[in-house]
């Protein structure tokens, strides 16, 4: 019995490359393995992906499975579901986890149905109680958290939400690469162009520092106050949903369940109360700093550092000190 992490690679305008959320899923797999006291392995599917398998072999894993077949060159749900099923039947893992991507959303239900299993999607956290795995997922756009546990025999299937786990927690190591050639037949579904999200002028997921503003800013004319702080820190400016809904900042700068999911090195929340819909989008940040005049604001429950005060006094003072430190 083991943990299996099914990684995702995509070839978009170049050679195959990892999706960012795959590394987050691998970090979750290693954490699960420690808590359940099970070995963890990882798999990558495709054709001509030896370099990716070699990179994966530099992580702390029991095995790296290179699942290769010419019919996996281009994604189809039939071939991916069949290949993963055959690998699962071969190695008999207890838990199989996937990144919650558009591609996984497409083939995971097919895989679960073929194996007569239930797949738990969009997991945001987990815990282990008396050796039993409990997964946490959200309902109603993040308004409710529900606990889900598995009944029946393994394998147990789950996909993990972007930003729920931190890729920088991955342990390095050395693992053997084992090639696995599934038996596949051409899919009835013809490969189509890979799904791409609409191009954004701002990709907050790539930002190392984000300064995000909420309703505490009161009116659009006050946004430049927070922009100065972002500029001083070399950060991207983001916002909670009410700010973008009001048109004070463009929608592409929204963080939350209906915006972008981010995990920067530092996330500075200014005048944000911390509604669950917003927390979903930023709780994976390495360091969270909150500025809010309400000492009981939910944002302080997730913040590493908090300043209880009027942002109109605190932010200018921070900008002044940052500029002094820069000389």
Description:
The protein is an alpha/beta fold and 327 residues long. The protein has helices spanning 20-36, 50-56, 77-91, 102-114, 223-233, 241-245, 276-282, 299-302, 311-326; strands spanning 3-6, 9-10, 17-18, 40-46, 64-68, 95-99, 119-129, 132-139, 144-149, 156-160, 177-180, 209-213, 236-239, 266-270, 287-292, 305-308. The chain has a 9-stranded mixed sheet with strand order 9-8-7-10-6-1-4-5-11, with helices on both faces. Helix 8 (299-302) links the parallel strand 15 (287-292) and strand 16. 41% of the residues are buried. The model has no long low-confidence stretch (mean pLDDT 90).
Q: Helix- and strand-based class?
A: alpha/beta
Q: Specify Rg, calculated over alpha carbons.
A: 22 Å
The biggest sheet, with number of strands, parallel, antiparallel or mixed sense and barrel status, is:
9 strands, mixed
Total DSSP E strands: 16
Q: Mean pLDDT, rounded to whole units? A: 90
Q: What is the tally of helical segments?
A: 9
């Amino acid at each position: 019995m083991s943990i299996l992490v099914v990684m995702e690679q995509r070839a978009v305008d170049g050679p195959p490359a990892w999706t960012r959320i795959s590394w987050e899923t691998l970090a979750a797999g290693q954490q699960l393995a420690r808590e359940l006291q099970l070995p963890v392995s990882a798999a990558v599917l495709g054709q001509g992906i030896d370099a990716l398998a070699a990179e994966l072999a530099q992580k702390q894993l029991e095995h790296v499975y290179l699942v290769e077949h010419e019919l996996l060159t281009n994604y189809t749900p039939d071939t991916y579901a069949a290949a993963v099923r055959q690998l699962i039947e071969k190695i008999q893992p207890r838990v199989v986890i996937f990144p919650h991507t558009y591609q996984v959303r497409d083939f995971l239900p097919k895989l679960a149905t073929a194996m007569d299993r239930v797949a738990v999607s969009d997991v945001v956290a987990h815990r282990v109680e008396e050796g039993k795995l409990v997964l946490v997922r959200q309902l109603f756009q993040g308004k409710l958290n529900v606990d889900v546990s598995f009944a029946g025999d393994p394998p147990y299937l789950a996909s993990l939400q972007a930003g729920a786990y931190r890729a920088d927690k991955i342990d390095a190591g050395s693992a053997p690469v084992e090639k696995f050639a599934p038996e596949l037949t051409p899919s009835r579904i013809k490969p189509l162009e890979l799904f791409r999200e609409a191009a954004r002028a701002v990709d907050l997921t790539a930002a190392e520092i984000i300064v995000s503003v909420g309703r505490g800013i009161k009116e659009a004319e006050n946004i430049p106050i927070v922009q100065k702080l972002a500029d001083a820190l070399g950060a991207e400016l983001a916002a909670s949903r009410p700010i973008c809904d009001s048109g004070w900042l463009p929608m592409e700068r929204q963080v939350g369940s209906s915006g972008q999911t981010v995990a920067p090195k530092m996330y500075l929340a200014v005048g944000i109360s911390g509604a669950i819909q917003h927390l979903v989008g930023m709780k994976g940040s390495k360091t969270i700093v909150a500025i809010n005049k309400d000492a009981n604001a939910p944002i302080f429950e997730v913040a590493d550092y908090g300043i209880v005060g009027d942002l109109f006094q605190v932010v200018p003072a921070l900008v002044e000190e940052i500029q002094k430190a820069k000389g």
